[in-house]
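Thread title: Can someone regenerate the structure for this chain?

I was given the following input by a collaborator and told the matching structure tokens would be attached. They weren't. Posting the sequence so someone can regenerate them.
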Amino acid sequence: MNTTTLSALPASAQAAAPAPRRSLKAVPVLLGFAVLALLPLGLSGFYVELTMKIMILALFALSLELLVGQTGLVCFGHAGFFGIGAYVAALLTPQAGGASLWWLLPASMGAAGLYALAVGALSLRTKGVYFIMITLAFAQMAYFVAHDTPLGGGSDGIYLYFKPEVKLGDFQLLDLDTGHTYYYFVLGCLAATFALLALLLRSRFGRALAGIKANEQRMRAAGFATYPYKLAAFVLSASLAGLAGFLYALKDGFVNPEILSWHHSGAVLLMIILGGLGHLRGALLGALAFTLLQELYQSEAIFGAFAKHWQLSLGLTIIAFVALLPHGLVGLFNRKEAQ
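Best answer:
Regenerated them for you:
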């Protein structure tokens, strides 16, 4: 590590927020997780499933936030890593059940991370629109492997009939098929991911990413090697996307090639923009708002026949949000805290 590392960082990246302000920002997040923990006690099955979907998408959004919001790398192929995590879970789960969570979960995350290592080693040597197009191309390659080969089941996809076992020897620690166990498992993964990223961004590594985002040329001029940090962030982000894909596959019991498509990459990018780039809380808010708006505009009970054109309504709403809230939904909370 070069001794000029910290001096190369912009002042905004070096300065930490005052402790009282950080504590205040943590309160809404803690309250949000507490509400999520209590929701299954008073909601029906449909709303519990919808909440699980939101939590999985929030985890997916957090993984992309590490790249786009914290490192300044706009990736348009993130669905590829999400889909790889989901497909590995499906392909490695025996038809008769009996897969262990202890190796299936690391395998899903590891496969996404290994693919990201290869993609990042090439794509991170480019910048701007070239980086965007290369990541998109690699994601589309994964899509066509799943769609056009027997390996991924083609357009029909693959079904999962059993969730993995969580055992310690012969003792079953968790049964993910009973009650709300899987709901709380997803919630635990989301909370752990948020805590991990929050700690990481306050570390020396996180300050380095902030410096790269603010002024990578200045960091290099000071003798700071930025490439390994960007590659590490890229692989970690992809591994977390693989975790989200793993949870998605287990929730629905089904995967198909559409989860690897560029549409899915665009959707998660919209989530973090809608929530507010540069904030972990923004990824959570963006996933919540995007999913609820999608469900609202697809409701035939409210919009009748026009519900078939929900993409138009959603697009216009997002344009309005971006125009009126340039800092995203999280900007509303930051404005209130500043007052």
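Residues 45-71 form the longest helix (27 residues).
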